[in-house]
Amino acid sequence: ALQLINNQDIKIENLFLYKYFKSFHPKNLSEVFLINKKSSLDKLNPYNRFYPWHTPYPPPEHQDFFFGPKINYKDEIKLRTYRLKNIYELIKTYGYIPDEIDCIEGYVLTNENDYRFIVTAGHHRSGVLSAMNILGNYSNEVTVRFDQERISNKCFIINKKEVKNWPSVKNNFLSEEDAILMFDSYFKDKIYFN
User: Fold this and answer.
1) What are 110's strand-pairing partners?
2) Which one, of 179, 40, 175, 183, lies nearest residue 107 by Cα?
């Protein structure tokens, strides 16, 4: 989003997203989250959207929209850049106007006095708003709400201290240590490319 705001005519090949899709091909879940320590996450398929605090086991479906390789990654990037540009123009013109139906949603991971809001809906809006904030063109506060599915499942605030109660740990699918490795990865800056 920062690249597109700074240069609307940037070539696809010069976008971070291009390099990311073309080069980032994790072989397991540890690599997805840039976890270097050996763990049972090394054996899990990278195409699984699995979070130990949310489900007892990895879901059977595989989703590959987070990284490469992609057969038509240029088309994927074109679609995403088109969406980001449109969202930027709308927010620049009208502001970010969330309502009951259309709002950035997510849940919270909390570790003592620190927390992360994990976006589950509104990734493109979040990226644009974050980029605009970095450039000094938007507030560092925006309205978000808890993911409604997670509210009904009572898992919208996940505390690291409660790791023993996370579904995958309770069912002995993951050890507490491995579940915490994944949790802690959200509290570290990640560098995908040098």
Assistant:
1) 115, 159
2) 183
42 CB-near residues (< 8 Å, 6+ apart):
28, 29, 30
pLDDT, tens digit, for every residue of 19-42? 888 888 899 999 999 999 999 999
Distance CA 127, CA 143 (A): 14
CB 1 within 8 A of CB 131: yes
Residue 191, Cβ density class (10 Å: 0-12 exposed, 13-18 middle, ≥19 buried): exposed
CB 100 within 8 A of CB 23: no
What is the rounded distance in angstroms from the CA atom of residue 176 to the CA atom of residue 147? 25
By C-alpha distance, which of 170, 164, 116, 165 is closest to 144?
116
In percent, how much of the chain has pLDDT > 70?
96
User: Tokens 């976006």 correspond to what residue?
Assistant: 119
